[in-house]
Amino acid sequence: MKKKSLFFLLPIFVFGIACTGKTNKPIDSESTSSVSKAEVIEIIKKVNNHWQSAHPQHENSFWHRAAYHTGNLAAYEVTGIDAYRAYSEAWAERNEWKGAKSDNQAKWKYSYGETDEYVLFGDFQTCFQVYIDLYILNREEKKINRAKEVMEYQMSTLNNDYWWWADGLYMVMPVMTRLYKVTGDKQYLEKLYEYFAYARDLMYDTDSGLFYRDAKYIYPKHKTKNGLKDFWARGNGWVFAAIPRVLVDLPQDDPHRTEYISIYIKMAEALAASQEEEGFWTRSILDKEQAPGYETSGTAFFTYGFLWGINNGILDQETYKPIIDKSWSYLTQIALQQDGSIGYVQPIGERADQHKNVGAETTSDFGVGAFLLAASEMSKYVK
User: Fold this and answer.
1) 28 is known as an active-site residue
2) Which residue among 174, 249, 259, 330 is least enclosed by CB atoms within 10 Å?
């Protein structure tokens, strides 16, 4: 099926928001009260049409591509543009509705790996979120058969240490609640909490309200160059975006719902206190000197998380509106480039100071996905 004919750049008019990507002047932290839903939708279309037209061919189902598709389907939800749904469906078909493709359960692994034996590794399970969402739109069992097979096998094991890195919470927590939603099997919720509790005890710092990326970065064993706790922005972005995506499908009477919300609110407080004046978060949240400069992926995930919390009555609008005003200004005035690309996305990695040159031309699929999540939630927030 040829995709190029489906994805063309729509004419975009200027809304009074300068999307130049220039960094040599202060941004205008314009109140989101003056932004209309139509303007936000046009931004979504500009960004997503650019990405899809530049990437007509589909690749494998690993996490960074799947993360883009979570944002793409959020864009589909608020725009109703069927080409967006079709783009994700074509990607899913190309990957046979699977993550890692091994059928030999005896060889399934869940440490880090990018080959087909790593079926139980969360980075190969992110795609299941997308497949389940597509299933809900059109209920064909082939779309979720592999997701159920893999997660049912995983839940049958005695292991609980499947989520040993912060990113893994975004990759798989929403898979569990989505599978509960379509099956009604409460084991998904029980195992969700069991796996989350392991990750919480390993990586969550109760004093700061933030998550370490994994066990290698826990203070005081690991410190920033200035001797501070090292909390990676994107790592916390994954968590701050994961909890809303869980709460959407988590029953109101789930015994652990209050705990998820409590951690989410404490993260919101910590993140609000560490935002830069220009609206972004530095890669090392508490030590800007560790990795200075603009960064978009963490900022976009944080923006999505704050917006979702206000939209769903969990975060106070008066308290967090100034945070959103500044981060939205950063995303649309600095991160968003004239051609619709999203810049200042830290490349794939695992720590704050891993990359030295993150510029307007530095983009990636997962960064675009994060931007689309934030923009889609913004379209629900503005009047």
Assistant:
1) no
2) 259
Q: Could you give the CA distance from residue 298 to residue 145 in angstroms, rounded to a whole number?
A: 32
Region 327-331: mean pLDDT is 98
**How confident is the model over 164-183, as pLDDT tens digits?**
999 999 999 999 999 999 99
- 3-state class (DSSP) for residue 340: coil
8 Å CB contact between 276 and 334:
no
Q: Label each residue of 122-144 as H, E or C.
A: HHHCCHHHHHHHHHHHCCCHHHC
Q: What is the distance between the alpha carbons of residues 50 and 9, in angstroms, rounded to a whole number? A: 6
Cβ contact 177:193 at 8 Å? no
Q: What CA–CA distance (Å, rounded) separates 211 from 202?
A: 9
CA distances from 335 to 64, 199, 215, 230, 361 (A): 19, 31, 31, 24, 10
Tell me the two tokens of residue 15.
């809304």
The pair of three-digit structure tokens given for residue 119, joined into one six-digit string: 């079926």
Largest CA distance in the chain: 58
This prediction has a pTM of 0.92
| Both tokens assigned to 25 | 């002047």
Distance CA 63, CA 99 (A): 9
Phi/psi of residue 381, nearest 5 degrees:
-85, -40
Q: Is the CB of residue 259 less than 8 Å from the CB of residue 269? A: no
Q: What is the mean pLDDT of residues 221-240?
A: 97
- DSSP assignment of 240-253: HHHHHHHHTTS-TT
Q: What percent of the chain has pLDDT over 70?
A: 92
Q: Decide if 75 contacts 41 (C-beta within 8 A).
A: no
How far, CA to CA in Å, does 383 sit from each of 2, 47, 299?
A: 37, 21, 23
How far, in whole angstroms, is CA 350 from its chain's centroid? 15
Q: Rounded to whole angstroms, how far apart are CA atoms 50 and 342?
A: 10
Helix, strand and coil percent figures for the chain, each rounded to 5: 55, 5, 45
> Around Cβ 13, how many Cβ atoms within 10 Å?
6
**Which stretch of DSSP H or E encloses residue 148?**
helix 145-156
Residue spans of alpha helices (H) in 248-351: 257-273, 297-311, 317-330
Instruction: Of 31, 68, 29, give the one whose Cα is nearest residue 50.
Output: 68
Both tokens assigned to 237: 């972005």
Q: Which of 133, 167, 230, 254 is catalytic?
A: 167
- Interior/surface letters 48-72, b for 16+ CB within 10 angstroms, e for the rest: bbbbbeebeebebbbbebbbbbbbb
